[in-house]
Amino acid sequence: MSKQPLFERMALIGVGLIGSSIAHGARKHGLVKHIAATARSEATRTIVADQGIVDSVYETGPEAVAGADLIIICTPVGAFEAVAKEIGPHIAPGAIVTDVGSVKQAVIKAVAPHLADGVHLVPGHPVAGTENSGPESGFAELFEDRWCILTPPEGTDATATTKLQDFWQALGSRVEIMTPRHHDLVLAITSHVPHLIAYNIVGTAADLETVTESEVIKFSAGGFRDFTRIAASDPTMWRDVFLNNKEAVLEMLGRFNEDLSALQRAIRWDDGDALFKLFSHTREIRREIIDAGQETEAPDFGRPHGSETED
Amino acid sequence: MSKQPLFERMALIGVGLIGSSIAHGARKHGLVKHIAATARSEATRTIVADQGIVDSVYETGPEAVAGADLIIICTPVGAFEAVAKEIGPHIAPGAIVTDVGSVKQAVIKAVAPHLADGVHLVPGHPVAGTENSGPESGFAELFEDRWCILTPPEGTDATATTKLQDFWQALGSRVEIMTPRHHDLVLAITSHVPHLIAYNIVGTAADLETVTESEVIKFSAGGFRDFTRIAASDPTMWRDVFLNNKEAVLEMLGRFNEDLSALQRAIRWDDGDALFKLFSHTREIRREIIDAGQETEAPDFGRPHGSETED
Asked: Which residues of B touch A217 (CB under 8 A)?
């Protein structure tokens, strides 16, 4: 342990990719004295126990949250209301309740009504992940150099927000605070719509009559395979994201469609200048993402090539 | 040199990412006796000469193709007609003329009329690349384990096709032969439309008023950054691809839009089952691409995480 623990007992409700990564990171950096976790399925409880990254694991929430001063809800967003209803009455006054959900307005609506006065709700969203899911896919470094967004509702105790900010920074994250509404707009364009169109093109390609699925797979190195990574993300989690950030997703999708129609028209009418102008601009944006430390500079994402191939 | 050279003199018309990678590969595997190249700009000629990966470099085509038995056109597709017009009269009978363009019907239309009888046109397309461009970005392993598609027009000399197939296989590629028309359809869905929607979403995100560009960059790890890699590809090359495969691109884009409208409707009407079903299916396709050796299995494309970060 590198420093004084920030919390006595952390309760993770759900231990998938994110929950297990928090457990690994908190353990590595000595951020909490005791890690409790819940998992509905026996299979997950066994994996979590075998990994030894939590100190106690339970089937239901009330036992896990009893005596906890930090509670992190890590289930898919669709389960939040039921979780809050179940654990709400068992949370000690003064505890911080947070989450890792990809939407924030809907989460506050689902959770806040079930918490007693004196319990601090500070919703959070670590903008980090991989295409893998499940407790065995987590690792302590997942949050390093990534951003974590906190969206405390108006009137939230500032000390609670600061303490949670310290926790995420100790996990290696940079922290930004914004309103829940703005969060949902920002994530709609940086995450939700990209996932939707990735799912969509992979679906379209699979359903064609003129091109076989085997051809799509063989020649995927032409660009298609880049989309399949995020289209391999957890289906339950993503269903819940779209159902719970409907308004912002539909708004951003409207903009995407408008722009795509203009591109389509430019192709139809041989407007090479319009195409060239857009294609040059987008190149600069990748450069800025690399400069901001949010992406690798290695060509092809640093994928192995040829003889370096992993298999 | 590991074996008898397949060709006496190879002339590369243009030495960007693909041309320079062919030069590196041909040199590494001893596939040709002499590598000649052309580059319009002095800057490129200097880089190519300094790299020492070609034996002679010229400003114009006729000198490069004189005496060549293999000519590979590696310029953007929009320049093919001018190139063919320039080099056509100087190509020796019996030589093989091929290319690396991402479209094939338009290429045959642009090049074939300028070749004399006895010159063998065997168009080709190595489905490989990175987001980088220019002669300094090439490397010998680029084609290893990737597919190269050959689209000989009807009546092409079978010996010429076989010889070119041997060349690509020696560079490490697997070779598939198909009609030019089918190639253009397959690539429209596996490469051209993916590039178009990647360019499009990056453009949309950059133009929003409600979300700043700095926010898009900060929170790009939520999925957006995966699209920026192919949206950083060479603008001239891609403008030419869309203008020269208009019909197939618009057809596949129509399908994409149709499917996206259905998804949009599912979100609007809370049809979680429809979303879940699609999101589960797309996951399997990535698995198949990995199993086919066309993608890395490492999470997040094997990007470095946290303390392993390259900088």
From this structure: 285, 288-289, 292, 294
ipTM metric: 0.92
Structural domain count, chain B: 2
pLDDT single digits (tens) A96-109: 999 999 999 999 99
Contacts of B143 in chain A (CB under 8 A): 306
Q: Nearest CA of chain A to the CA of B221: how many Å?
A: 6
For B145, which of A224, A232, A306 is closest by C-beta distance? A306
Pick from A210, A249, A299: which is nearest to B130 by CB?
A299
- Among residues B124, B143, B178, the one where a domain terminates is B178
- pLDDT higher than 70, residue A307: no
Q: Chain B residues with CB inside 8 Å of A130's CB?
A: 299-300
Residues of chain A contacting B296 with CB distance shorter than 8 Å: 303-304, 309-310
Contact A220, A277 (CB under 8 A): no
> Is residue A14 located within the same domain as residue A152?
yes
Residue A2 lies inside a defined structural domain of this protein: no
In a domain, A29, yes or no: yes
- pLDDT tens readout for residues A25-58: 999 999 999 999 999 999 999 999 898 989 999 9
Residue-wise pLDDT for B37-65, tens only, equals: 999 999 999 999 898 989 999 999 999 99
**What domain range is A29 assigned to?**
7-178
Distance from CA of B93 to the nearest CA of A (A): 33
Residue A17 lies in a domain: yes
Confidence of residue B307 (pLDDT cuts 50, 70, 90): low
Contact residues on chain A for B311, CB-CB shorter than 8 A: 293
Do A100 and A38 belong to one domain? Answer: yes
**Which chain A residue has the Cα nearest residue B255?**
A204
**CA atoms of A179 and A279, how far apart (whole Å):** 33
Same domain assignment for residues B169 and B192: no
Contact assignment for B235 to A289 by CB distance below 8 Å:
no
Whether A189 sits inside 8 A of B216 (CB atoms) is: yes
Question: CB A202 to CB B231 under 8 A?
Answer: no
Of the residues A137, A150, A199, the best mutation for testing chain B's interface (the one with the most B CB atoms within 10 Å of its CB) is A199
